[in-house]
Request: fold
Amino acid sequence: MIYLDNAASTIVDESVLNSYQKVCLQYYANASALHNFSNSTNNLLNSATDQIKDVLALTNHQITYTSGATEAINTIIKGLPYAYPNRNKIVVTTAIEHPSVENAVKHLVVNHGYEHLILELDENGYIKKEGLKAVLSLKPTLLSITHVNSEIGLIEDYQEIYKLANEAGVLMHLDIAQSLGKIAIDFDYVDYASASMHKINGLKGSGILINKKSCTIYPLIHGGEQQLFRSGTIPVDLAIACSKAIRIAIENDFNYICDLSSYVKKSLLNLDDIIINSHEGCSPYIINFSISNVDVSSVVRLLSEKEIYVSTKTACKDDKALSKTVFAMSKDESRAINSVRCSISKYNSKEEIDVFVEVLQDAIAKVRGNICG
Amino acid sequence: MDKKIILIKYGELTLKKNNSKLFRNHLLSNIKTRFKDCHIEMNRDRMYIHYDVENEVSILDILDATFGLVAYSICEIVDKDLDAIKENAFKQMDGLDKSFKVFVKRVDKKFPTSSLEIARDVGGYINQATNNWVDVKEPEVKLNIEIRDKYAYVYTSEVRGLGGLPVGSSGKGLLLLSGGIDSPVAGYMMNKRGVKFHAIHFESSPYTSVQALDKVRTLSKKLAKYNGDFRLFVVNFTSIQEALLTAVPSSYYMVTMRRFMYRIAQQIAIDNDFKVVINGDAIGQVASQTLTSMATVDELMRIPLIRPLAVFDKVDIKEIAYKIDTYETSILPFEDCCTIFVPKNPQINPSVEKAIAFEKEMDIDLLVANAIDSIKVEYISFKNNEFEELL
Reply:
């Protein structure tokens, strides 16, 4: 099997799994009880949290363990009417946000009378600064953007955007699902952030919400208030796995990924009719490309038969789904429909890429042949 | 990998004529035990730490917590070539918009250009090529160039160190660590003068909680950053406290309790060859810290009892506690052995004679021996995390 869909989910790192198992078996006390066993469990939890703060250089932030980025995002956005009742009922995003952002904002629009403003992007996919300034002058409550876009890997200049938002007194949420542990983040320029562990060889059902202490949150889940912004018994086992996964991700060899990424791009460009959508300003972990004059969903199906897994938006011919990001950038519908995302990890090798490109070439030829014949 | 060098100036250490080497060795080992990935060169008035740039944050963190260094500078390593030196000096000086002066130290006397010529040449170049200007009397920036055997070092900034003496160079002591705000600061102050401490903590389990002891462990870890690894002696003090409740009137409970603490601490210190006992008393802060109260304790001391905070105001102590990051932990609200069984009206001016008279009823030696038997020793290290394997 050649797994090139690491932006969707990843294999669990063995040492993360080992820690998870050990904690399940050795530190199973409820971290909020009074006895000594609970106390040591709680100490373990605190060490895990401290380690995250340490490796991410969080100086003035709080960490909440959640079930994933989706819950973190829902907590931040759906809590706005309660956390900031006196601010303008406006939320700003781009057109290429994760559905959890889109739909949480939709909830505010439908049920709380909020207005959802969408920022314009330039031909490279970056937020247009003039448009942003104009929107910020309306003093929305929240601006929600993505650090690394999941479809093409575009790295947004969140620091510059944060400065503008901060000057205008607007809070900013940064979706770091594709960047945590991969692309450096300066959390001084982040009010809220959300991430999932299964993107960095951690466990599914685990994620974190980070907020600056000065930026409050209204909890989505009420109960025993075990965490400041989230009730429910704290899954210490998941929290430890989370801390370890983040540490390991940060210690990863970034140069190896950069090297492998350019190798993928170079190899793909040897084939005909391929356009690389992930330009220079994109994360090396994601290589998005379009194949012209071919039915991409059939190509991907052929790859899948050979146990090579990449991702595409065109899962089915009748489905009109296209890569929103590629479309927003290129305004070219067929390029957006015929796009493929290859996302790599430290576990991939150049040999795998060679096989992938070879099989891809055959698959394209086969699909074209069948259509012609 | 990119290499850099940190140049360390010792200050007071160079004054210690005969044993200056001893002090320097303490400093070297204090740095080396906490940061292994470096190579250290040392001479009478300087120390050079060679390290990889990627470790810069960790090494600076450690230097900022090291006593015995007055100042340090991060130097760039440059080829021994005048143009290379100029280029690097330009890189460091460009855009500063400040007055400067060039200082040259030519250790390698074989280098063809003299110190004066180097200074004139580089100074002239920087004066012209950047927006900085020469001021030989009161320069805002000192551009230092050292021509050494293999390379030249160029640096401009100087960071102030903690000063004081290298921890351990003045010997060892035993710190009474309660978990409050003062005692960690007292330990830190002793570190400043080169005393390394081990710590003793009195717990009154089951009246005090595990959290109270954990708090002391956390404080210890924070102190280990300055003090280095040390031992924490945890004494179970409950039976002595219970005995005191029946033996002495409540107004003398505090005085006699403290006398027991110091008997135990003194014994531990003597057994382990610690030269001094240290506490966090500040004159007049509470009833047990009046001069007469202090005298009741000093009466039984056979080795020095030092109170580094004796003349400090609370605000000053708090300020240091903030600086060494112990304040937030110290104010966690867990009861310690001193806050349980506290009498409403403790004696502010206790007399030694009365205290001795009340204690006559008790089997002092047995109580002390039992308490010492109850001691559990923990090893405190600022690096070692018991959960490291899991994280």
In short: Chain B has 13 helices and 15 strands. The CA atoms of residues 193 and 224 of chain B lie 16 Å apart. The two ends of chain B are 28 Å apart (CA to CA).
